């Protein structure tokens, strides 16, 4: 195999062009960071796989300017129906589930292949093309940077970069090359997934079909009318070679109360639960499924990977531009690995409880869920907790070295609360550090922000701001990803200056 050289090298090399890698590349490109993104596959995925796009992901996309396009192409899920024996036993509304808490107070279904296509287009508009059919075959690093060997069409090339990010999935070559452990396990149950056309027309709601010996989900795939079917393969069929949907039809249709007219895609899979021992090794990072995999409970997987990408991108950009201390990069693992471990533990408990073969799981499926869920739905606190958890707006970094202070009920590490009037999320499109004041800025505080190169956004004190947990005349230093770094109840100018000095933040300075 011959070896070629490349005249220009990127600052960041991304291995893996799924949603995590694409969002990471797009975030970096929008910030002017030279980036390459490669994937060993011949092209984008053609299966819908991950479906749910959560509110926090849409908020990140709003910063980049294409959230509305995603919403327009997806399907808003208006309700969830619990069914037993093909008949409804309970239903709850999902319409504006998180009204007032996010610009996107709903659950959105958006097929992953359509999602990836849109991200590839956005990345191309930013001047970066995915290099398909390109595999990582070698990796080494030193204090100066990373040396990656890439293979394409029988030719190897050496790519040198300041940093490398492994977004290459559960079987990550990057993780293996770095010899990072991936502890966890695999559930015994075999699952099926199918995209199918169902008699009776397209249904926008989520249907949870409960049975004493299993369960199945049905949700909308895309506006063209396909439905996603997910469920347990009956024990008697788990060892059958060449399993097809026709083998499952006699059990799936009665459980879900449907008749399948056509199947567009069908597969079986085992569910894993693993978290990498580290998310960083020197100048190399892991994100998405390369760092964590878990059950699909709650539609969290893809959104968590995108959250990794957003968290890492702005930190790499600031360090590469010389606008922050390199220690900023240490906070990526600190902030994201804790959430990944908590998520895997939570989804593991939920997954085992709902899918288990034991009597307790059968009682949960056939009695507790149908009776408890509608009852709990009557409480606004329960609805808010569910939205905050599933939407990922509840993710916070309170234990991060980047988080300090408290003003009102908002503390450093919280996502900036959303205030609709006037819209305080609009300013986040700058992708830059900024200061928010809800009330009247103090002159010394405004001067401190100006000296630090921070844009100051002053919002009127409103009832909406109070309900969001903000404090009148409080000052909030907001990170480029929309999280509060520093909360100051009295606009303490010296604390703002000290924070910027501690991290060597120079947000208003040009790249070095």
From TrEMBL:
The alphabetized UniProt keywords are: FAD, Flavoprotein
Cofactor(s) the record lists: FAD
Question: What PANTHER family does its record include?
Answer: BINDING MONOOXYGENASE, PUTATIVE (JCVI)-RELATED, TRK SYSTEM POTASSIUM UPTAKE PROTEIN
InterPro entries listed in its UniProt record: FAD-bd, FAD/NAD-bd_sf, RIFMO-like
Molecular function per GO: FAD binding; oxidoreductase activity, acting on paired donors, with incorporation or reduction of molecular oxygen, NAD(P)H as one donor, and incorporation of one atom of oxygen
Q: Which SUPFAM superfamilies match?
A: FAD/NAD(P)-binding domain (SSF51905)
Which ranges carry the FAD-binding domain?
11-345
Q: Would the keyword Flavoprotein turn up in this protein's UniProt record?
A: yes
Protein name stated in the entry: FAD-dependent oxidoreductase
């Amino acid at each position: 195999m011959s070896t070629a050289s490349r005249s220009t090298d990127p600052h960041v090399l991304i291995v893996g062009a799924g949603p995590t890698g694409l969002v990471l590349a797009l975030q970096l490109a929008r910030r002017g960071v030279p980036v390459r993104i490669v994937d060993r596959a011949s092209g984008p995925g053609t299966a819908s796989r991950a479906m749910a796009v959560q509110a926090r992901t849409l908020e990140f996309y709003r910063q980049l300017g294409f959230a509305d396009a995603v919403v327009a192409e997806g399907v808003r899920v208006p309700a969830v129906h619990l069914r037993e024996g093909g008949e409804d036993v309970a239903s709850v509304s999902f319409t504006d589930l998180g009204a007032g808490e996010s610009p996107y107070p709903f659950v959105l279904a958006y097929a992953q292949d359509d999602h990836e296509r849109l991200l590839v287009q956005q990345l191309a508009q930013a001047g970066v093309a995915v290099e398909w059919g390109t595999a990582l075959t070698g990796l080494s690093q030193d204090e100066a940077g990373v040396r990656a060997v890439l293979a394409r069409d029988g030719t190897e090339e050496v790519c040198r970069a300041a940093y490398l990010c492994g977004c290459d999935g559960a079987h990550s070559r990057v993780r293996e090359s770095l010899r990072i452990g991936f502890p966890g396990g695999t559930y015994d149950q075999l699952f099926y997934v199918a995209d199918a056309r169902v008699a009776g027309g397209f249904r926008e709601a989520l249907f949870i079909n409960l049975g004493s010996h299993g369960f199945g989900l049905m949700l909308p795939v895309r506006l063209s009318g396909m439905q996603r079917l997910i469920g347990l393969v009956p024990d008697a069929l788990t060892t059958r070679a060449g399993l097809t949907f026709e083998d499952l039809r006699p059990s799936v249709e009665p459980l879900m109360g449907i008749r399948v007219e056509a199947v567009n895609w069908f597969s079986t899979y085992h569910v894993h639960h693993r978290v990498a021992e580290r998310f960083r090794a020197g100048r190399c990072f892991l994100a998405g499924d390369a760092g964590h995999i878990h059950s699909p409970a709650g539609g969290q997987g893809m959104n968590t990977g995108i959250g990794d990408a957003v968290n890492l991108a702005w930190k790499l950009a600031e360090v590469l531009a010389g606008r922050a201390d390199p220690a900023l990069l240490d906070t990526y693992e600190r902030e994201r690995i804790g959430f990944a471990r908590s998520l895997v533990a939570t989804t593991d408990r939920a997954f085992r409880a709902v899918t288990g073969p034991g009597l307790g799981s059968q009682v949960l499926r056939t009695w507790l869920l149908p009776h408890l869920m509608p009852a709990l739905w009557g409480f606004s606190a329960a609805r808010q907790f569910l939205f905050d958890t599933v939407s990922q707006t509840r993710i916070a970094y309170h234990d991060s070295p980047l988080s300090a202070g408290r003003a009102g009920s908002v503390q450093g590490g919280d996502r900036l609360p959303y205030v609709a009037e006037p819209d305080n999320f609009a300013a986040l499109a700058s992708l830059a550090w900024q200061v928010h004041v809800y009330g009247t800025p103090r002159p010394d505080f405004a001067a401190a922000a100006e000296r630090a190169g921070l844009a100051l956004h002053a919002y009127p004190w409103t009832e909406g701001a109070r309900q969001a947990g903000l404090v009148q005349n409080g000052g909030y230093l907001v990170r480029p990803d929309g999280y509060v770094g520093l909360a100051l109840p009295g606009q303490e100018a010296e604390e703002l200056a000290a924070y910027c000095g501690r991290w060597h933040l120079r947000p208003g300075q040009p790249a070095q």
